Amino acid sequence: MKLVHVFTDGSCLGNPGRGGWAAILKFGITEKVLTGGYANTTNNRMEIMGALFALDALKEPCSVVLFTDSRYLCDAVEKKWLASWCKNGWKTATKKSVKNRDLWERLLPLLARHKVTFYWLEGHAGHPQNERADILAREAASKLDLPRDDGFEKD
What is the mean pLDDT of residues 32-49? Predict the structure, then answer.
């Protein structure tokens, strides 16, 4: 199984507001950069989107080490919140509806396809790939004519 390192970030210019996500995928010396954005969204949604699009871009099952500065994203997977939400009918421990369910549901099959380990990085702490992903995500959020994030409107 190929080992891929992924560095993701999400950004929002206002929260909610214009948002962007970025993913840097590294396999050996090969690197692929993915970015995107939405006209009205949240930072948490953009953090999830970075991971979602990165994993979706992999053409075969891979072992993935995914670095993120989002505790929300990292903890949802690594602390098994996501599994609990599914088991509890998409309700949190406090019986509230899980936010961003549409994205979590898209992420689940990708997590099943790949062997993914999430690592949290402190944001804006000088980690080169995290800083680069942050810049790319902010640039994506700044683009003109961004599409609607229809899932955001449902939360």
Answer: 97
Provide the domain count of the chain. Answer: 1
Active site residues: 9-10, 47, 69, 124, 134
Range of the domain at 48: 2-154
**Rounded CA separation 33/23 (Å):** 6
Q: What's the angle, vertex CA 61, arms to CA 131 and CA 151, rounded to 5? A: 60
The mean pLDDT value of the chain amounts to 95
Q: Identify the bridge partners of residue 18 per DSSP, sorted by sequence position.
A: 13
CATH number, domain at 107? 3.30.420.10
- The pLDDT, as a whole number, for residue 78 is 96
Residue 55's alpha-carbon distances to 40, 96, 97, 109, 145, in angstroms, are: 23, 28, 25, 10, 26
Q: Is the pTM of this model over 0.90?
A: yes
